[in-house]
Specification:
single chain; about 450 residues; Immunoglobulin-like; 2 domains; four-stranded antiparallel beta sheet; 2 helices; 31 strands; globular
Length: about 450
């Protein structure tokens, strides 16, 4: 078992869908009691999520210690996952310039409240409260402890085991060097009333302070055993590449790579992450995340796609939001957009026209024999919506005409087609988006 990276998120679709998608990720993930873990240290995400989480968390804490700061507060986050045809929403409420509550809407219904509490201005506890009793999500909480310098020392996760009181589940302890850099951390599991060692990771930095390697260990048979290694390469300014290896059979084996490219446009910045997983020296999985930021490095949006039989299609994956003010959030989705307090949005206004092109997941999916496809145009364009089979052959054209800006819906009747995987593709000007759907007769 490889080192785990905790995301402080709850995934917003049914448990079966999570497990199905996880299997396609070569078991990179593991769902336990509603939390999502990076189960493989060879994570495709940018910079190890656990390490970036601690770095960002401590940055936030130290800024508060220095007397607070001004920041552009996120009003709401709108996101799609590959299993929904309508957007989901997170609404952020604030108290004393800090996040106090997040209202989580799934398919237009409030299904969870996430509450934050603070001690001496530092985050002390996050609680997760399910609103719908039929939900698979269990009530949970995360508790934080700090050292004398205000750095995160311990995270303790408690969850509902069916009792009235929350019980311990996972504990992470962080250790720092004399210059306040994270040196290593240790994970422990609560088993039968005792804390048992699970895994740990050691970090190494360059002379200029960049993270250059993380070595992971698992605690097996009463011994610490090397499990995986991540190596970080930089150019003069940015992280350019992460190489992943697993320790297998007494030797290190390369299992993946993430490489990064950056562009600076007139009114925004972009960071494109391409990733590959290997097996027997063959690429078995490709994924890309396209992050957009404003000129001050505040998150704007992210789209996630994976390659399927040579076609890039939307897929769910953990999207990490790290803002310069210390704000951090992680969400499992295929398309994410943030709205700030100077530009709030009512995402349930069905007449609202987005300022971006958008192709939604078809509904229902799987379907038999008909399904509906929704898309949005921010401006007038010649539009085509086409259907392809798994071999990439066109089997139907649903739209092929000039259309003004607006929200559209088109129906697809597949009664003359056989069961299987199909792709639908929206092309409008320079915009191109492809998604997968399943016909099940």
């Amino acid at each position: 078992m490889n080192a785990r990276f905790l995301f402080l998120i709850l995934i917003l679709f049914n448990f079966y869908s999570i497990l199905t998608e996880a299997q396609s990720f070569i078991h990179n993930y593991k769902t336990r009691k509603g939390f999502l873990f990076y189960q493989n240290s060879n994570s495709i995400e940018n910079i190890s999520a656990k390490i970036q989480h601690v770095k960002n968390f401590n940055n936030y804490s130290l800024k508060i210690y220095k007397g607070g700061f001004d920041y552009n507060k996120i009003d709401s986050i709108l996101y799609y996952d590959m299993f929904s045809s309508t957007p989901n929403k997170l609404k952020f409420n604030y108290s004393d310039e800090k996040v106090s509550e997040i209202l989580w809407f799934n398919q237009n219904e409030l299904f969870m409240k996430i509450r934050y509490s603070y001690k001496n201005t530092l985050p002390e506890k996050i609680t997760y409260e399910g609103i719908n009793n039929d939900s698979v999500w269990l009530d949970s909480e995360i508790n934080y402890l700090y050292n004398d310098e205000g750095l995160l020392k311990e995270e303790l996760i408690k969850t509902d085991e069916g009792d009235k009181e929350l019980t311990p589940w996972i504990k992470t302890t962080y250790y720092y060097s004399s210059n306040q850099k994270l040196q290593y951390y240790v994970n422990e599991d609560w088993v039968d009333g005792n804390w048992l060692l699970a895994d740990k990771a050691f970090l190494e930095y360059s002379e200029d302070g960049n993270l250059i390697s993380i070595l992971f260990y698992n605690f097996l048979e009463n011994n610490w055993q090397e499990s995986s290694l991540s190596l970080y390469n930089y150019d003069e300014k940015y992280l350019k590449e992460i190489l992943f290896s697993d320790y297998d059979g007494g030797k290190w084996k390369t299992t993946g790579k993430s490489y990064f490219s950056y562009q600076d446009f007139h009114d925004y910045k972009s960071k494109l992450i391409n990733a590959e997983l290997y097996e027997n020296n063959q690429i078995i999985y490709k994924l890309r995340l396209d992050y957009h930021y404003d000129k001050s490095d505040y998150f704007l949006s992210c789209k996630v796609e994976r390659q399927y039989y040579g076609i890039w299609i939307s897929t769910n994956y953990p999207v990490s939001i790290y803002n310069p003010d210390g704000f951090e959030f992680h969400i499992f989705a295929s398309d994410v957009k943030a709205y700030y307090n100077d530009n709030p949005t009512d995402v349930f206004d069905k007449n609202e026209i987005s300022d971006n092109y958008l192709l939604s997941q078809n509904y229902p999916n799987p379907f038999n024999p008909a399904t509906s496809i929704k898309y949005t145009l921010p401006e007038e364009q010649f539009v085509s919506v086409k259907i392809f089979n798994i071999l990439g052959r066109e089997v139907a054209t649903l739209v092929s005409e000039n259309k003004p800006a607006g929200n559209y819906e088109v129906n697809f009747d597949a009664r003359n087609l056989s069961s299987g995987v199909y792709f639908y593709q929206l092309r409008a000007g320079n915009f191109l988006s492809t998604k997968k759907m399943i016909l099940m007769k």
